[in-house]
Amino acid sequence: xxxxxxxxxxxxxxxxxxxxxxxxxxxxxxxxxxxxxxxxxxxxxxxxxxxxxxxxxxxxxxxxxxxxxxxxxxxxxxxxxxxxxxxxxxxxxxxxxxxxxxxxxxxxxxxxxxxxxxxxxxxxxxxxxxxxxxxxxxxxxxxxxxxxxxxxxxxxxxxxxxxxxxxxxxxxxxxxxxxxxxxxxxxxxxxxxxxxxxxxxxxxxxxxxxxxxxxxxxxxxxxxxxxxxxxxxxxxxxxxxxxxxxxxxxxxxxxxxxxxxxxxxxxxxxxxxxxxxxxxxxxxxxxxxxxxxxxxxxxxxxxxxxxxxxxxxxxxxxxxxxxxxxxxxxxxxxxxxxxxxxxxxxxxxxxxxxx
Length: 355
Ligand SMILES: *Cc1c(COP(=O)(O)O)cnc(C)c1O
Fold this sequence. Notes:
Blueprint: E1 8-9, E2 34-41, E3 44-52, H1 63-67, E4 70-72, E5 75-79, E6 85-88, H2 90-103, H3 111-124, E7 136-145, E8 158-167, E9 175-179, H4 197-212, E10 217-219, E11 231-232, E12 235-241, E13 244-247, H5 258-269, E14 273-276, H6 281-289, E15 293-300, E16 304-313, E17 316-319, H7 328-340, E18 351-354
Parallel strand pairs: 1-3, 9-10, 9-16, 13-14
Antiparallel strand pairs: 2-3, 2-8, 4-7, 5-6, 5-7, 6-18, 7-8, 11-12, 12-13, 12-15, 15-16, 16-17
Bound molecules: pyridoxal-5'-phosphate.
């Protein structure tokens, strides 16, 4: 149990809920009524409040804007059949946020602030958690440096905010991806395994170039030889070769995805063979040629599972088998949805119910 926080609550005078068309929501553009805010001042977290979602006033000298001391998380909440709100693996997001924070000299967020703030926010905005199949409430916790100082050094003060967005059914169409052979997302010793803002800024230009060539995403490769697969966009990559699930082993160049871990846990639980190890592009191309590559997919909170239909490498488009209902990735998607909505016994202790 987490200790109760002393949170000041200022509610909206009128909810925006009646104005939302839940059957037609664009990801990340619709915000729930309230947000949780906390400030780190004089070495301590305080000023806990829940206020109407709204604009922040910051000075042009705010150091997060200049040097990127900013970390974020992404997780989801669902409703079960009794309309209770269930959050999927929030303690894992909390742990990861603190690892990200540490990597860029930011303070850790105590569990009672992260989980406690989230719980109170979801209690207040519970009506914003959609219950139509496939929908969920996306939760965005983030923290940034607030010192008004443009000398390069770690900020002394920080702000932590959680806001939420209802999201519609996210059916990702099968993706065309291109193996990146020039740009690098992460190096050993770098910040690749941290969810820090700068990583994403650096990925935009290479992704844009690939999009101009007609691809949806890049497959990032290792920074030394561009030979080993890392990940794609904001998803970890998983391959099914002859009914063995193969995914890059976790190191400091790969984001340690919670969806990835959930997929592997379910696979092992169902007796499937799982290998976490290095995978070269050559191995994948070889498996495509020999027809042993059954499926390739990305795993991440936003889409859960995104199938890959084309992998481009050295100018050649390699086509993967079309998605079929007996794909492991289809089954695991359904199973994950059932865990998230409380339709399967929570045997891995993934669910936190908001009461
Ligand atoms: C967030 C993220 C993922 C997926 O992590 P989940 O916890 O499954 O949402 C994978 N790769 C990158 C680079 C990410 O930022």
